[in-house]
Structures are given as structure tokens and as C-alpha cells.
Amino acid sequence: MAAIRGLKLIRGAAMAPTLTKARADVDVVDADDTAAADDTGDVMTVEFSRFDTWYEIDSWWEGRFLEKTARGAFKRTIKAQGPAGIKVLFNHGRDMQIDQKALGVATVLEERESSPYMEVPLLDTSYNRDLIPGLRAGAYGSSFMFEVVREDWNHDPGVSDHNPDGLPERTIKEVRLFEAGPVTWPANPDATAGLRATRSGVDWLMDSLRERDQDQVEELTRSFAAFRAMHGLSTPSEEGPASRHRPDPMTPAPGSEPARHVDGLSAAARRRRMTLLGVKR
Known about the structure:
Layout: E1 8-12, E2 18-23, H1 31-38, E3 40-47, E4 55-59, E5 63-69, H2 75-81, E6 87-88, E7 108-111, E8 116-121, H3 126-136, E9 141-154, E10 169-183, H4 201-210, H5 214-231, H6 267-277
Parallel strand pairs: 5-10, 6-10
Antiparallel strand pairs: 1-9, 2-3, 3-8, 4-5, 7-8, 9-10
């Protein structure tokens, strides 16, 4: 099943990025060459979401549902773009100091048995030297930005051990990968820790975009509304996740008529709703 195009999503990787040392490829023949052989660089490794592992998405923009990624979903994008075609950034290029400077160029990007896997020799830069102590200490998570190309939905799966609330289930069959790297706040739980809900990386992205590109926020607001309507998804209120069957508040698009109050929302929830949509009071 084809997905709505143009929706860039963020999901957390399966584990924190790790650093290894890469030895220089030098034949040792004298003392100078020995020093060259001992000269090492830091290589960052990242494993993406575990294949065929359910996790919960609980997002104001995306809605609430279960999701998993099928094995093979990354094969086409890896073949088309190659490792060097994927940008490697810190905090998805939205760090105030590093901005969109590349951390390195990936030399390995492949699907392994449990998840996609990437190796990135880090560039010798001041901003990478600032990041390396935190990476070595395991202080950062990692996540990746992508677009869903093909997906399967089960809108009425019923209650099961992996889905006790009977939420709609999405299986991602194919993605187009854009970017990956370390982040301060990973978007998803470690897939090895089992099923638990988390704030979606899309919520973080939209918050960030609202400060830089209001036109893009308005376009994405309409696209995500279409996505939720297509799959019968509701969004969490400020008091907590909404059930799938709760009516979606009829909030006008940014820039149109003033926002209407919606029955059941507190004043604080209405203010947050208008802030997220960029509606000025």
C-alpha cells in the first residue's frame, strides 16, 4: 500500500551510538610508520529500529497506533543512495552551535539480521571533538529521519498480548532514508526494552520547525490531518492520550478564522492546541 508522500518522520534507533577506533592502513617498516599505524580515528556505529518489533507511537501530529518495520524496508533506499548519500548530523541538524555541519560520511550502510547498521568515520573537527566524550560515555541516543514509501495497516486488529489496547497497527514495508545521527533526546524507546509509548520525534521536529519555517509547519499540519483522517487516528490531549474513537477537535487551519473552543478541553489545552497550530490569539 502506498503511503502519503512528503511526511518526514523521526524514529529512534535500537541503541545508543558507539565509538570504535579505526587503525590506519599502513605497513610498518620504521619508527615513523609505527607512529602512523598507531594513529587512529573514531568511527561511530549506529543500529536503527529492530525489525519486526512493535512499538507505540503516541503523537499529537501522527496519532496513536502501533508500528513495526519489516525486514527489507531499507534495501531499496540503501541501493539507490549508498552510504555516502545519507546525511549524518547531530540533533537532525537543529543544534544551535553545530547546525547542519556533517559529522562524517558513512562508509557502511546495510541491513543486518536484526536492524539496519551504519558506520561513520568522524571528521576531525572541533565540534566532533566536543561530542566524542559524550558519545564514549553513552550520553546520547540516536535516531533517523525518513519517509514511508509503502506500508500495511490493520485498523481493527483487536486486543492481543502485544497490543492490549487494540490500537491500529502499521507495518512499514519500504522507506526512503534521509538522515541519521546522535541526538540528545532519542525519539523512541530502545526496541530491546520492550513495548512502551514515547513522545514522537515528529512532535519535536514540528516544535523546532515552528521557530524557523511557519509555512512548512502549516503545510505539514494539513498533511498530518489528512494522514490521521485516512487511518481514523485521534491525537492525545494535554491530559493524556486520546482513544481512537474520540472525535477529532475541529480546529481551523492556521491563518483562517479564529480558533473555536472545543468541548471537553481545558483552557490550558486550548492554548497549547493553538500554539502547536500557530494560531495567534
